[in-house]
Amino acid sequence: MSFTYKTSVVAVVAALAVTACSFGPSGEPPAMPSPEHYGAQPQVSKTVAAGGIAQSFDVGATGVTQWWRLYRSPALDALVEEGLRNSPTLAATQRALAAAQEELRAQVGASTLPSIDGAVQVERARSPVVPGLGPEQVQYNFFAGQLLAHYTFDLFGQTRYMNSASAARVNVQAFELEASRRALAANIVASAINVAALDRQIALTERLVAVSNDAANEDQQRYALGSVSRAQALTSKQDAAAIAATLPALRQQRALAIHTLAVLMGRTPDNAPGVRDLDSLSLPEHVPVAVPSDLLRSRPDIQAADAAVKAAAADVGAATAQLFPSLSLTGSMGRGGFSWPAVLSGAGGLWAIGAGLSQPIFHGGALFAQRRASIDAYDAAVLHYKSTVLSAFQDVANSLAALDNDAQAFASTEVAANAARAAFDDTASRNRMGSLPSAATHASESRYLNAQIGAVRAAGQRMSDTAALFQAMGELPTDQQTTASRQ
After folding, report:
1. What's the CATH number where 125 sits?
2. How many helices (H) and strands (E) does the chain have?
3. Are residues 341 and 439 part of one domain?
4. Are 454 and 417 spatial neighbours (Cβ–Cβ below 8 Å)?
5. What digits encode the pLDDT tens for the residues 239-287?
6. Same structural domain for residues 137 and 269?
7. Residue 392's closest CA among 453, 458, 301?
8. Are residues 271 and 336 in the same domain?
9. Which domain holds residue 260?
10. Distance separating alpha carbons of residues 114 and 152, to the nearest angstrom
């Protein structure tokens, strides 16, 4: 009989365990397509040479840790490190994660281990007066001290599912913190590049304004002498004013960029950092292009969406488990009496033990509605995961296309700037020899300055888009990086 009883108990426990495991989805993210290449067209192995650099796309490489150091600028490194250290937004996200981790520890401890509490009671009471029955009043003291214990058995896994859901949501916050950290670094790099490019554009535009004003003044003098028409003099004046009108817009863009950079670094706008010249930055020659399977593990936004799927799956399990019985044990032990000698005597012992079994019967359909809601939330989490992965593929595809096109644009503007410089040098030389008027020199220099401005814009855009690709690649965890390198 004993053997049969024990065998039956083991069978029941095993059956309950199997049942509990099937209460919710597995939590594994859905399979996603693994495209041969990210964009509509296969990416090239390297870009055209521009600025002396042809960037190579290293297919299969993993994301780079501290990728901003590849620009080989200690000043840029200092800006990023200060931002990561002092950003209040990033610090707030870190503290929110720490709070969530502590709340998880509290939840796990409270739900998986027995609770034991101590209670002490000291009371002085007076009994009600009942005429004709005993003394008119009785006053007495009561002393008691007890240890109270309570434990709920997780028969169908509800507690386990709830703790799993909470742990997964803490992981969501952890991955979101990593995404915020990488986004902050990328924004600082992009802002610094933007400021440096705008500084160069402002300097070139200021020179362009000066040249245009000189040309307008000369045409005004020539008009006074009758050598040019009034229309030409007015056109030159209009052109100079139009070019001068572009300066405030550039300065405004620069002010917005430097103020943004200051706040990203945790500074006030009036304490904005200095930014080195664009020439102090070196364009990274090699950029990683992770295969799609690695991208799913390296992008923190995808990892956060994965953790959200696991949390939603655990919620389904918890909502299902709450439809089944719950078993609790309670116990207490202590001493009590109407006087201290009675409390300390053998007669003062107190104890109690009990068990309770509850089974939901009727809750107005609330429990089933909660389960259906958790299933819908799980389906939404799966769809959000798919959307996040597709957006990540799009980010990479856009960045790869941008770098290819940036290189071609920069190469063209570089050719234009070099040709304009040669033409300006030739025109200036002929002007010094007296074979060309100064108006031709002004026009040639204006074309050269405009070509230089275009080249600066193209160079800055190429550097910014390179940072965007590093950001889009994410970063594999250290252990996964080691595994990937061995493969």
Report:
1. 2.20.200.10
2. 11, 6
3. no
4. yes
5. 999 999 999 999 999 999 999 999 999 999 999 999 999 999 999 999 9
6. no
7. 301
8. no
9. 2-112+162-323+382-486
10. 8
